[in-house]
Amino acid sequence: MPTFVTSEPAATGELGAVLAPLLRPGDVLLLSGDLGAGKTRLTQGLAEGLGVKGPVTSPTFNMLLVHEGRIPLYHFDLYRLERAEQLEDLDYFAILEGDGVAVVEWGDRFPEAVPSDGLDIALRIAGDTERVIEVRSLGVRGRELARAWAGAAAGRGMDVEGA
Ligand SMILES: Nc1ncnc2c1ncn2[C@@H]1O[C@H](COP(=O)(O)OP(=O)(O)O)[C@@H](O)[C@H]1O
Ligand SMILES: [Mg+2]
Q: Please, what are the domains in the chain?
């Protein structure tokens, strides 16, 4: 499974932009990693690649922000979620199977939030501006996406290991 290494914020954004054209409705990306690891930066690049026009910020207080692009982008941040039951209040499960792409920051906080299909992306701070981004695939669609993403990133000359 691929691991990406980025050495500046723009490169993490570019990784997201490279993934965007590969996505289709119902795809789910879980993002985990410490504050400042680059979860939102990756999402911003993804949004750009999906043709989202407005600014994309961490939905920490809202827990969900929706952006209009080629297909809708549902950007969750579960940092402040207290109990898994609250996922229902956010319409979480319906949205994951809905008409757009779901990105879930802090998606690893609740086992209930982990989908059976998609990508589980762990971002790690490895230095001031270095980030190690490990991709784990979930299900058949996850494997397909991970492979396609690694191929597309390698094609752009990005740092990819274990593709
Ligand atoms: N290689 C890198 N990739 C992503 N962000 C980086 C990188 N190097 C430094 N940064 C900085 O780290 C911070 C990441 O913030 P953010 O994307 O909001 O993280 P998170 O959503 O994981 O809390 C930004 O201030 C960004 O400029
Ligand atoms: Mg964030």
A: 3-161 (3.40.50.300)
